[in-house]
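Mods, move this if it's the wrong board.
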Amino acid sequence: MILLDVADIKKRFGPEPVIAGASFELRPGDRAGLVGPNGCGKTTLLRIVAGREEPDSGRCLVHTSARLGYLEQQPEFSPHTTLHDEARGALADLVSLQREADETAEAIAQSADAAEQERLSARWDHLQQELRRQDAYNLEHRVERVLDGLRFSRSCYDRPVASLSGGEQNRLMLAKLLLAEPNVLVLDEPSNHLDVESTEWLEDFLLESSAAMIIVSHDRCFLDRVTNRTLELFQGTIDSYSGNFTAYRRQKQQRLLVERRTYEKQRIEIAKAEEFIRRNAYSYPARAEDRRKKLARIERVLPPREISAPAMSFPPSARGGDIVVRVEGLAKGFGRRLFADLSFDVLRGQRWALLGPNGSGKTTLLRCLLGLTPADEGQISMGVGVVPGYFDQQLAALDDDLPVVEAVDPRRNRLNRQQRRDLLARFGLTGEKALQKVGELSGGERCRAALARLAAAEANLLVLDEPTNHLDLWARDALEKAIKQFDGSVLLVSHDRYLVNRVADHLLVIEADRLRLVGGNYDTYRMLVGRDGGGDKPAGETDEATAGAAKDKPSADKPTRKRRFPYRKVQDLEEEIAERQATLHRLEEELIDPAVLRDGQKVRQIKAQIDQQRLELERLHEHWDEAVELNW
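Not the wrong board. Structure tokens:
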């Protein structure tokens, strides 16, 4: 059954189309991630799907059984209701059902007519059955579960909605949508304004849901955990891939290899044909005309569908002392204590990430380390020769009234104009964008301009507060590579677990009742939490040694998991993988044959076979991974 059928949607806001023929289907069980670079039209497409916007052409059909829920980016509430009442309002249909059941029971008790009592009793039975089916007797528990999961404290329940911050109102919108339980969820950046703990709760909630989903998110861990399909929106059209974001990236690279080879091979064939026509146009006009006709019949292969990312980089840093930052007995609070008795050293070349719930003091700690906010207690010492560079998540260092090409230089006129333009180009801001005023840039462009300004500071300690805000998936990859290649030290605050996992080698985690220092990345931290149940460890005591011990535990101690695939020997799976890889290679070779390239229908058939082989290989590799783990 097709719950959502989107066919050839087109939409423009000016001379160039934003969406130029997008098509896809959503079926029960699909959890589709919609990915694409910033500005490609993802939100516009979701608004069309949700009926909030009309396409210029094409159709979007919603099955009669589908109840579609859309996460609005701009909250709309009655200002006088409380947080709890607004959330409970998402269950208004069930509350009405309960009220009708109560009223029916009262009518039965008051009726003296036997026939009327029989009719009312039948109605009451039906209502009770429906209430049980929809778990309507646990409404308060359902409301509390969702509000607790999205980190609303019980003390906030009676607050007027108008008094909530913008981030809290967005979380309330998400809470209402989850409580309404539509069977088709359309989610545009659902993890915005959520800390790591709330995001992981949301992932678990969505995995338990039976609803079909289409999700736009820049959180790569979120996409990997939740989605089982990936729709790539680029240049106005959609390509579909099986699996989550990591599977999409692997398939995308394989597909690009074939597309590049096919495109280049056809270009060479076309160039040869054009040269033949040019050389023979006067000497052998009949031959030239025959070749021209054949050339006209060739179905042109489209250029590779390649999404480029800016080649971000930070310059080599001057060497400072071995101890970059020393923190001793640090404490800070604003009415309530954020952290206390915090001691640690950041050594040259280390990359530290600070994790913790919203409002736990991560930004405050960074500002204390930089001397921008005074600490209540303790001492902070910067090492000899340390030059910090600060990326503020508010992007306050950028002057909105200056052209980008001027705002990017933190020390005015140290760089000449061409050097500044080259620097901006490295961060994906070229042409007219470099000449615009900072205030005219999009969020993602402002973020990249701020990163370029940070690179111009030539710091040997990068202090980054949520640097991936507003960046798309490809820009995040580029930033990740730039941080990993940087030869100085890094202090990073981010909710992007994928980034933290790839770049950090030390973590400072602010937990409910203590600070935890971890020698390792995010995976190390999750392993430690799972092993010790979050047990107490004094601030300043590292988990590095215990992490190493945990890695050395024998595999027999690992919890087993259920099989997804039937039992097969690893050797048999490897043989089938080799056979399918050989078939795939043969098909790819066949696709670049000049005779095949002249036959558009044959090209499409072979591409379909290649996609099928890749899907089978993807499944076989997952089967092989499971067999290696469980066949013991």
